[in-house]
């Protein structure tokens, strides 16, 4: 029987455990190097034994550990003359004190990152989730031999290394907040797309993130082609909608929106430098006091323009004829101007960043609000439909049948524990690992992973190395 799990995560005691728990990480962060000043040899050995046993095999009873402890420590060294000289590092043999535990199946599962702790690895073994050489193994203390292949059910590895699955109420609250913020973002983006786009780019730079399209060349080229295809579709649509009437409507809108004196430069932003003089002639032909240029804002401008071009009025016949002639000339050149504009906006496939797209906010849609919590309790989570660009389904419950956060996300603070041993060959794609050999010690390093220094292991070894052994 293993030890009872008592005070394993105590922040007061601050013991280091073979676990990926966040409290264990905090204990590791605040841990100071043990000081032996003022202590008797017995106290030094006792404290070292307590510190090392808290990490190495804490689930084993002391009598069990003393039974499997071996005073013979394994180390290797080259047989040539490369170790001669004063620059050779010392071999940390004392770090091999607990090397015998690395053979155990439960410890090997934890070292291979198939479980978040040795105790969880033990549970997986007892529940028939682990196989050794293709045979289900239900003994956590099984000692692996060199060449043994062990595996774990992939869903259990995802559960061990993934974020915990939130309950339904937590997911509901998170999605309510996300919907509120998303709808606010959509509203602001449609009102001022350039300002929001610049703000998004500034946020990326402040976080130290790159504005690169993609790090992968294949993905980058794919996104650039999608961007260019989108521009091409917009070009065709704009050219198809460009007529003499639409050009005259644009001229009227520019004049009505300009409070300063009307000059050819006023039309340059819309029609380009090559057409600004022609467009200005249209304005001069109509005259500053023409009815079309003084229409109220609530009037349908296109309707009045169509009537002006199609209807023949004797009073304005010459003015109509001259205006239609100018608009026809402008229309031909304006179509070419549109084509050149969009061609210049296209991105070369060697580019690293995409330029600003004025229509980027057009595809954004508000999200429908979720129902009340009472409705959810009555009908279940199936009545909740969540569809964000970054999330399909409830927060953390995209696949409610899974026991872990979906879509799968690594558990927080995983990086400090991602240390793979040299005596294991691991395949995370298949959740298999090969036990290559027993861990050994070499000059300057030991293959036994431990957070404690050599002097602590030395005194722990002295504690277990009794007289007569």
Chain-wise SSE layout:
Elements: H1 22-30, H2 41-55, H3 62-68, H4 105-111, H5 118-126, E1 130-132, E2 135-136, E3 148-152, H6 154-161, H7 168-191, H8 193-206, H9 217-240, H10 244-256, H11 268-271, H12 276-286, H13 301-310, H14 317-345, H15 373-379, E4 424-427, E5 432-435, E6 441-442, E7 445-446, H16 454-464
Antiparallel strand pairs: 1-2, 1-3, 3-5, 4-5, 6-7
Helix pairs in contact: 2-16, 4-5, 7-8, 9-14, 10-13, 10-14, 12-14
Q: Helical content, roughly?
A: 40-55%
End-to-end distance, in Å?
27 Å
Number of helices: 16
Low confidence ranges: none
**Can you tell me the overall shape?**
elongated
Strand order in the largest sheet: 2-1-3-5-4
Radius of gyration, in Å, reads: 37 Å
Proper CATH architecture of the domain at 22-162 and 412-464: Roll
Q: What fraction of residues sit in β-strands?
A: under 5%
Major sheet, described briefly?
Answer: 5 strands, antiparallel
CATH names the topology of the domain at 22-162 and 412-464 as Structural Genomics Hypothetical 15.5 Kd Protein In mrcA-pckA Intergenic Region, Chain A
Q: What do we call the CATH homologous superfamily of the domain at 22-162 and 412-464?
A: RNA-binding S4 domain
Mean pLDDT: 85
What's the CATH C level of the domain at 22-162 and 412-464?
Answer: Alpha Beta
Structural class: mainly alpha
Order of helices and strands: HHHHHEEEHHHHHHHHHHEEEEH
DSSP strand count: 7
Give a quick set of tags describing it:
5-stranded antiparallel β-sheet, Structural Genomics Hypothetical 15.5 Kd Protein In mrcA-pckA Intergenic Region, Chain A, mainly alpha, 43% helix, 469 residues
